[in-house]
Design a protein that fits this description.
single chain, alpha/beta, 2-enoyl-CoA Hydratase, Chain A, domain 1, 15 helices
């Protein structure tokens, strides 16, 4: 196996098996259950060959996989009566983030999620999940509404980063993110954050302060993309693999460093191979975590949240 191949080449046998499963699911074959079970077992075998050889660059490919479930997929699968809220009441709406209120397990929650888009047209319309200042201010509007009525907040992160365009800078991109950090830190309701794909820089952090911060097994979370890091530090796009390794972007690294609290397992081959199983995993985590957090008083929430982020990093005092 050539570990220098990109992940899309490595996963071809798994994708072929997945296509056979999908075809059987739509057929009237009386023995389809047994055949599907056999195909799933074959996927497990293929994954056992691939997974030990995955490097950080492969994880980046997995996190960016075009068939990976996006925020709206999670919202539609896990929540009911989602009512999307548009606009920041200052400038415009930002389609790169979907925000609003929904019922989760019979309870009203505020939900935020970056959305990349599936088709080329939708990706352009949603700016590939890269939020502008109005997107962060829209998120701010929704979480302040949640605090007013005592609704917990669920934040789903999947972005390459905040949009770096001139217009975004002119409208206060850095200030919008920084102000969100301040407000999210002091929000007096539970906040559960799940990194479901890319967790890119301040673009992710702008809606990523929470009482619980977890990530799916094959997602990544980083101060900068490997491509951006290679361009800045090495000035060479051939250094992307080196940058990905140096950044410690994998879930295992980040959990070990205390940046995230927990790793949520993915099906063999990644979340896109079995979205339903991924939804069940995230659903179980959200349900359990919200129950624990709602048992705490508002003062306990704030103090625990403060201590959580205060403990991150290593420093020496002289």
């Amino acid at each position: 196996m050539d570990i220098n191949e990109n992940y899309y080449q490595l996963e071809k046998p798994i994708i072929q098996l997945k296509e056979q499963i999908d075809a059987l699911g739509l057929s009237d074959d009386p023995g389809k259950k047994e055949k599907i079970a056999a195909l799933r077992l074959e996927i497990e075998r293929e994954w056992a060959k691939i997974s030990p050889h995955l490097n950080p660059t492969h994880i980046v490919h997995l996190a960016r996989h075009p068939k990976r479930p996006y925020s709206l997929d999670y919202i539609n699968a896990l929540m009911e009566d989602f009512m999307e809220i548009h606009g920041d009441r200052r400038f415009a709406d930002d389609p790169a983030i979907v925000t609003g209120l929904a019922f989760y397990k019979g309870e009203t929650v505020a939900v935020l999620g970056q959305q990349k888009g599936r088709t080329t047209r939708e990706r352009i319309d949603r700016n590939f999940g890269q939020m502008n200042p109005e997107g962060y201010r829209k998120a701010l509007r929704v979480v302040k509404l949640a605090e007013k009525f005592g609704f917990p907040v669920i934040s789903l992160i999947d972005t390459p980063g905040a949009y770096p365009g001139i217009g975004a800078e002119e409208r206060g991109q850095a200030e919008a993110i920084a102000y969100n950090l301040k407000v999210f830190s002091s929000l007096r309701v539970p906040i559960v954050v799940v990194i479901v794909g890319e967790g890119g820089s301040g673009g992710a952090l702008g809606i990523g302060i929470g009482d619980s911060v977890t990530m799916l097994e094959n997602s990544f979370y980083s101060v900068i993309s490997p491509e951006g890091c290679a361009a800045i530090l090495w000035k060479d796009q051939n250094a992307v693999k080196l940058a990905a390794e140096a950044l410690k972007i994998r879930s295992q690294d980040l959990c070990g460093l205390g940046i995230v609290d927990k790793i949520l397992p993915e099906p063999c081959g990644g979340a896109h191979i079995d979205p339903d199983q991924t939804f069940k995993t995230v659903d179980k985590h959200l349900s359990q975590t919200l129950k624990k957090l709602q048992q705490k008083s508002k003062d306990e929430l704030l103090e625990d949240r403060y201590q959580k982020f205060r403990k991150m990093g290593i420093y020496l005092e002289k």
